[in-house]
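We store amino acids, tokens; thus:
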Amino acid sequence: MIGVVLCFWAVSFPKFLVAAQAVPPVTGRVVNAVSGKPIEGMALTLQISEYQGFSVRTQVKSTATSDRSGSFSLAGFNHPAETLFDEIRAHWLTVNEGLEATGQEQNSAEVWLLYNPMSNRRGIDVGDKRYFPLTITFRQEGCARAWAAACMYMSSWSSIAIPVIPVLDDVSECNRIVYELLRENCRQLNTYRVAFVHVDSYEEVKKDKELCNEVDHGRIAKTCLWQLDLYVANPAYGYVRPMKAQVNEPIPAGMFPDSLAGLPVMKNKHCGPRLEFSGRVMCAAGYGSETKELVAVYIEEWPEEERSTKPPTWKPAYTDHKEATVTEESRSDGKILRYCGPQIQFVLLA
């Protein structure tokens, strides 16, 4: 038999001491990125984020407003931390985002720009509408996950110059900026905004879609298209803008014949308005007697859809009548499904 002796030692682990974090004051000037002139009245805040349970809380530690020379000064502060969980998660500077906590970190300006491009969304406070908001980070990786046009890294805290990009009616004015990266940021920001200026017709929105795709041909362009769709659908998404009265489209010649299977067309034939974003037009007509509609025909026009080379597949969505039958008839210009029996609904499978 082999005896095994187990020995245990009491180990005393050292307590981790966390020193208070010091954030220095920030001083500098705010200037127009295109003209180089100082901007007066620009709101700036120094904000931090820290963990609060399983969430992240942001708060404003210092505020300032630029004077006539564009100068500002934000007071520094000491942040006591007893444990690692009390440390500051991040700290950053906001420009033209108001004087309240943004609830976001380094991507706060990006959120404002992407989801309120015309500064007219209900419940969202905005700063000076003549300029785009900007987030300044003092960590090299601070803008890694933010739109580069809305976030800028600076290595110095003292006597910094903050170039704020103005809202331009003519995007080509960005070419006056000498610094290449800043010039590209100006183009992206103003192109994104211009895509939302004229949205009263399908032809205008079609051009806006092209502008969205020109922003960066990537993530921001996709967000632009998504937001443009929501913006056109006002007021469902909280945007405030004047609405243009919708006008029904004329019925194309020959769309609805005078009779269908011996049934005369009714007087209710019409086409609805063209949707601004998709360009879709819905047309409908009834066939039957003056008092009773026996057949309803609906036609949708999608101007941006390519004609499919694959024949469509039709599947009954529901049927409660076994005697109902559907037969196919192929013609040179497409396929006709003839239904014989009670009313039935079909779904087109793309």
